[in-house]
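Fold it.
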Amino acid sequence: MNKRDFITGTAIAGVVSVRPLSAATVGARNPGLLTVSGAIGKSNRGRLDPALDQMMVKHGIQFAKAFVFDAPALNGLPSITIKPTLEYDSRVHSLSGPLLATVLEAAGVKPGRPVTLGLRAVDGYNVSLSLTDARSYRMIVATHIDDQPLALGGLGPQWAVYEADTLAPFRDKPLKERFALCPWALYHIDVKEG
C-alpha cells in the first residue's frame, strides 16, 4: 500500500467519523424512523416513491417532499420526561423524548402556526389534532420507556403521547379511554394548514 494513500485515507476517515450527524443528513447513514410531510419549511427527502415506500402507499400517504428523522436526530433534540399511568398494565411508567412541537419545529413548522396534524402508526391507526392542542397537552414523541428504547413490535420506536393523569380533558376518563390521541409505533406526521 502506498504510504501517502494510507495517510490521506486515514485523515479523511478521521474527518468523516468526527463530523456530527445533523438533521440535514438524516437518512444518509441511519434508517428513517419518523417522516414529517405537508406544510413544512425544511426537507431532506424528496417525493414519496410508490415502489419503495410501500407502507405509506398502502396507508394512502402522498407527498412531494418530507423531513425524515432517524434515531440520532430524534435523540439529539431536547428531551423531557413524563410519567403517565398506562392503560396496558395500569402502572406509572417514565416516558421520554422531544416535545412533538420541537420535532415539528425541526422540520420547519413555525411555532404558533395554525396547523392540523395527522399522526399515523405502522398499523394504520391515524388521529388528527391541532398543533395548539399538542402544545397544550405537552405531547411528546417518546423514544424511551423506563430508560430503555421503545421497541418496534412493542410501543415504538416512537410513541406520540402525553401525561394523561395530569390533563383535565383526560384524567377523569377511564384509563382505557385516555390515550385515543396517542398512536404508538408512530411513523408519519402529516402537517396541514388550518
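Helices lie at 3-18, 54-58, 71-75, 100-106, 131-136, 168-171.
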